[in-house]
């Protein structure tokens, strides 16, 4: 029997995955999500949580079954994160209240939202114009004082750290749409440096509300194809017109391979590479030469110690915006070359929408499930190919395939790009 492998090809502690959890608009848990993904079912629907009259976009992949009647982005994000983390920690077999490592949580930026602002204004008792002083006075009365904790950026992570008993100061982070992947990257680095034997890495986002829809609409980033919600998200199609907002969370339990072997844990896969590259070109747009995207992909492969020929499948960022899909295709072709025309690539955002802060973590879970199940989820709604993107996007129907290594891409507003390499094998 071969000796267990504890280090990667660079002599660093090998990072294993021993637990995964996920929740999206497709359902709660890995089994429900995987069944829906591989059947090509969409979780995108007309928004019922709040009035949408007058909005350009009236659809989203909201997680309504978690109970959004008291909707508030930090509260819902925490509920989603707790659900995903509970599944992941349970699968890992580590103690749920005494987790032996660090916590890294990707959370959406927080601010007092319009429902709370209105409640605060009403509590001020002013019939006319409400001043800032009026709002401050009202905020010190009744239940409003609790909002100071609710709308602090680090509150979700603090609550999760208490619940799961993680060690050290919990880390909250937000790197736009690459946040979930960044949380995993931080966990990898902590284990490689020997700072912790394990890490609980979470990406969560429950921030679909009217104000968010308006802001993204002002950037012309959202699809306005509202008539048939499940057909609106069209990554890589010529008639794509923007992304659809989604909600969800995913959690991964990372451990050093030595720690996992020592306690007899089942290893679900490995995260063998992570690459990032910042892009100062624009607050929302990517650099037109694709250099930062190319650099992030190349850095992930270099960190994994593999060449582009070793990638069997690409879990695309694939938002469905005209610019992003073209940029991602260009970056992949630059690094992988003509072979990229035959490497399967698909976007689960066609089914769950763009889960924003959670996306990188959600897609890491789906990437590992692709490896373990031998099935590649499709890109649905692909009926009008874009000749400028000559890729095998696994159109409309899932595909059985032997997949050993996956490149999972996450590209965020503000030029925050993070790519992960996930593998069935240690290297």
Give the class-level CATH name of the largest domain: Alpha Beta
Give a quick account of the main beta sheet: strands, pairing sense, barrel closure. Answer: 11 strands, mixed
Overall average pLDDT = 92
How does the helix and strand content classify structurally?
alpha/beta
* CATH architectural grouping of the largest domain: 3-Layer(aba) Sandwich
Shape: globular
Order of helices and strands: EEHEEHEHHHHEHEHEHEHEHEHHEEEE
Radius of gyration: 21 Å
Family: Belongs to the thiolase-like superfamily. Beta-ketoacyl-ACP synthases family.
GO cellular component, one term: cytosol
Protein name: Beta-ketoacyl-ACP synthase II
InterPro entries: Beta-ketoacyl_synthase, Ketoacyl_synth_AS, Ketoacyl_synth_C, Ketoacyl_synth_N, PKS_Beta-ketoAc_synthase_dom, Thiolase-like
Write up this protein.
- The structure is a single chain.
- The protein has helices at residues 30-38, 73-92, 114-123, 132-139, 147-150, 155-164, 179-192, 210-218, 257-262, 291-304, 322-336, 349-352, 359-373; strands spanning 15-24, 27-28, 45-46, 59-60, 102-106, 171-173, 198-205, 248-256, 269-278, 313-315, 345-346, 375-376, 399-400, 405-412, 416-423.
- Strand 10, helix 11 (322-336) and strand 11 form a beta-alpha-beta unit.
- Strands 1, 2, 5, 6, 7, 8, 9, 10, 11, 14 and 15 form an 11-stranded mixed sheet that branches.
- The mean pLDDT is 92.
- It is built from 13 helices and 15 strands.
- This is Beta-ketoacyl-ACP synthase II.
């Amino acid at each position: 029997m071969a000796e267990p492998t504890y280090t990667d090809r660079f002599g660093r502690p090998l990072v294993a995955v021993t637990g995964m959890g996920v929740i999206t608009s497709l359902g709660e848990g890995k089994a429900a999500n995987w069944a829906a993904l591989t059947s090509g079912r969409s979780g995108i629907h007309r928004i019922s949580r709040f009035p949408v009259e007058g909005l350009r976009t009236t659809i989203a992949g909201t997680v309504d079954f978690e109970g959004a009647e008291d909707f508030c982005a930090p509260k819902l994000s925490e509920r989603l994160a707790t659900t995903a983390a509970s599944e992941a920690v349970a699968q890992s077999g580590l103690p749920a209240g005494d987790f032996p490592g660090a916590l890294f949580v990707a959370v959406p930026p927080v601010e007092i939202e319009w429902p709370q602002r209105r409640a605060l204004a009403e509590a001020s008792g002013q019939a006319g114009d409400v001043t800032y002083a009026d709002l401050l006075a009202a905020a010190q009365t009744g239940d409003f004082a609790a909002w100071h904790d609710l709308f602090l950026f680090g509150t979700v992570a603090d609550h999760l750290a208490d619940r799961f008993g993680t060690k050290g100061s919990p880390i909250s982070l937000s790197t736009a749409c690459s946040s979930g992947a960044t949380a995993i990257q931080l966990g990898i680095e902590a284990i490689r440096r020997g700072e912790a034997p394990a890490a609980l890495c979470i990406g969560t986002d429950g921030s679909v509300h009217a104000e968010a829809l308006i802001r993204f609409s002002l950037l012309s980033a959202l699809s306005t194809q509202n008539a048939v919600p499940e057909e609106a998200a069209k990554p890589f199609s010529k008639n794509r017109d923007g992304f659809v907002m989604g909600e969800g969370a995913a959690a991964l339990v990372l451990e050093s391979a030595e720690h996992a072997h020592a306690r007899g844990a089942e290893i679900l896969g490995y995260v063998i590479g992570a690459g990032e590259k910042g892009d100062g070109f624009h607050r929302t747009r990517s650099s037109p030469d694709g250099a930062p995207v190319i650099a992030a992909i190349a850095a992930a492969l270099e960190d994994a110690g593999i060449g582009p020929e070793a990638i069997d499948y690409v879990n695309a960022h694939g938002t469905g915006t005209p610019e992003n899909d073209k940029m991602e295709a260009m970056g992949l072709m630059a690094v992988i070359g003509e072979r990229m025309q035959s490497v399967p690539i698909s976007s689960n955002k066609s089914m769950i929408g763009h889960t924003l802060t959670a996306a990188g973590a959600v897609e890491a879970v789906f990437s590992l499930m692709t490896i373990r199940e031998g099935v590649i989820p499709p890109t649905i709604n692909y009926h009008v190919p874009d000749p400028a993107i000559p890729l095998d996007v696994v159109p409309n129907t899932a595909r059985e395939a032997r997949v050993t290594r996956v490149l999972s891409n996450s590209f965020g507003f503000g030029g925050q790009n993070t790519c992960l390499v996930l593998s069935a094998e240690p290297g």
